[in-house]
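Anyone? Bumping this.
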Amino acid sequence: MRDNYKGYLFILPAFLMLLVILGFPAVAAVLQSFNLMWVSKPAFTLRAYTALAQDPEFLRSLSNTVLFVVVVVSSHLVIGLGVALLLNMEVRFKWLWRVVAILPWTMPDVIGGLVWRFMFDTLPGIVNSVLLRTGLSAEPVDWLGQPDLAFGAVMLAESWRGYPYAMLILLAGLQSIPRQQYEAAELDGCSAFQKFLFVTVPNLKHMFIIALVLDTIWESRLFGMVFSMTGGGPGYSTQILTLLSYKQYFQFFNVSYGASMAVVLATVLFFISLPYLRMSMRQQL
Amino acid sequence: MRKPTSIWVFIYGALAVMFLYNLTPFFWMVVSSFKTEIEIVNYPATFLPEEFTTAAYEKMWLQEGFILYFKNSLIVSLSTAFLSSLVGIFAGYGFSRFRFKGRLALMTAFLATQMIPGVLLVGPYFKMMTIAGLYDTLFGLILAQTSITLPFSVWMIKGYMDTVPMEIDQAAEVDGASRLQTMFLCIVPLVLPGLVATTIFAFLLSWGDLLWALCLISNPLKQTMTLGITQLVGQFRVYWSEIMAATVIASIIPATLYLVLQRYLVQGFTEAAVKE
């Protein structure tokens, strides 16, 4: 149509909002990390970044984040694929299984963190109660008080809460596989496992990558769950980058330092999201 | 196709494991919220309340702050959902119906903003709000959350509008309707179910937020639900039964809405990539 220029007008309000509320703060954060904005004497410096490289708390938070994301996202994909395969079958009470399968994801992450914190509570928690009553452990275990156990507990909690997201994406992928391909495979005498390997896997690859990328981004940005479950402790054993950046910025007022951590995180996420962005764009052409 | 019994045993066994895994935390949350203050601190914990009581709910609900948190969360989430859908309708229509220069680049930019971590933005945004005099106001929080939900609302609404044939726009144009009239009177009614889904998603994202409320609100009377509940933990004379009652209340709305909406769930977050 001739009035294509009007498209700009329709997009303008959203564009302006994003520019002011997302674009400007993003640029400001980068400038702050180089000590160029909202300081009495702006002067370009890399001090924040060089300090990062020598800060054991930052390095630990960075490695925590990587380990956390790798473990949690892999578990989401494994559990998610398993449950998606189950829900894709002709089972009875399908709606009930579907509803239950989605439930963990409906819980806001902050709330999930609180519930799991109480589950792992040393004395009145359910985990120690089960261990004691089944005779697996006579002494109550201080789950959230010991660095390695606490980190494991947080990863377990987020594995539980977040997997339905990956599951739903994979389920959509499974449902879009044409039945004829399975029927053809059956005619060729394929076993159930061969059908999975030669029909399901290649068809699901695309959605699997989408689930992988999107879930990685969600989990790298996670904040509320860890904040409410351990607050990063004990020490900084469960601290992830988002939490440390928040603390530096809002609790210790190391503005430039806190910003530099967020910039590092955002840069990594940008590169991770590139394949997804490219894929989405190709579909729009 | 017929499957042997052993396979069915395995399938239903696996479903039962999933059932237990998914529901245990919910079970624990609900059960604990009905325990007395004495039972909730007992070791080892009981699996079902020995003495069933709603005292924790009454105490939470009667606490003056809690109703306020609930109200604030509703105000913020509803406004965020409404605002991001309204602005999203315009942008979604723009992307769906017009072929202008830089369209693809703009759409990519919108999508890319979703990848930015909140911690990068929240610091400078806090500073901006302080300068603008909007720090510690629900309005400032609503603006922030709207921009977080907006890109995804735009993509979702655009996706729904793409399913409406262009002939409808052309027919409306022949009848002399302006673009705005076409959008509101012809296209919006046709994508209404999708629009409702989008609005509810934005509501839920906003409802579950902690980071923005934590950084932009300091007045206890303006705290949202998630923020208010996290601050209860560790306070003197606040028992876990009460916190669990609060988490039950905070979880009911999202759980209900998600379940109502479940068939739109995937579309929402993968709209861009799922389409064939």
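Late reply, but here is one note on the structure posted above: The longest helix of chain A spans residues 56-87.
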